[in-house]
């Protein structure tokens, strides 16, 4: 049981301490997590010790901003630079021996999907911060292209960790999503605190 999309304080829009995320994952009975900070692997690096101690399988990750939407990278060894084309970004992930996924393909300014879908390994079909309609469209897209779906909470707060679980992790079998009725309040809260700190 894995949560494959989690942000830490190394993302501009989150306050979560990396070791706390690991503690919560353990408490919630997860076997592993992927830390996927925006354009950074610092959160992953900071969480490693806690993951080792608590025996949580910590997957190195990053959520990379491209010039056409966001790409999730897993099992990369180095940070992938943002603001390039999705094609170049996916290529670099592959060169590093990593795994790529389109993050929340239908949220907001969505990626112009087209050929990119064919290039990635997975589509994020359940994102804890996307609407039901956005997730349904993503699932349809994955089915159409014969791509496997993965899911993650997209946690920006500690409470969201484990809200969406991919059974099997990067060998996805099925996805379990739990509703968090207060999630929008937490989203607003962490944005305000960050603004005040800046
Ligand atoms: Zn995210």
Automatic annotation (TrEMBL):
<dbReference type="InterPro" id="IPR004013">
    <property type="entry name" value="PHP_dom"/>
</dbReference>
<dbReference type="GO" id="GO:0004534">
    <property type="term" value="F:5'-3' RNA exonuclease activity"/>
</dbReference>
<dbReference type="InterPro" id="IPR016195">
    <property type="entry name" value="Pol/histidinol_Pase-like"/>
</dbReference>
<dbReference type="InterPro" id="IPR003141">
    <property type="entry name" value="Pol/His_phosphatase_N"/>
</dbReference>
<dbReference type="GO" id="GO:0035312">
    <property type="term" value="F:5'-3' DNA exonuclease activity"/>
</dbReference>
<dbReference type="Pfam" id="PF13263">
    <property type="entry name" value="PHP_C"/>
</dbReference>
<protein>
    <submittedName>
        <fullName>PHP domain-containing protein</fullName>
    </submittedName>
</protein>
<dbReference type="Pfam" id="PF02811">
    <property type="entry name" value="PHP"/>
</dbReference>
<dbReference type="InterPro" id="IPR052018">
    <property type="entry name" value="PHP_domain"/>
</dbReference>
<feature type="domain" description="Polymerase/histidinol phosphatase N-terminal">
    <location>
        <begin position="2"/>
        <end position="68"/>
    </location>
</feature>
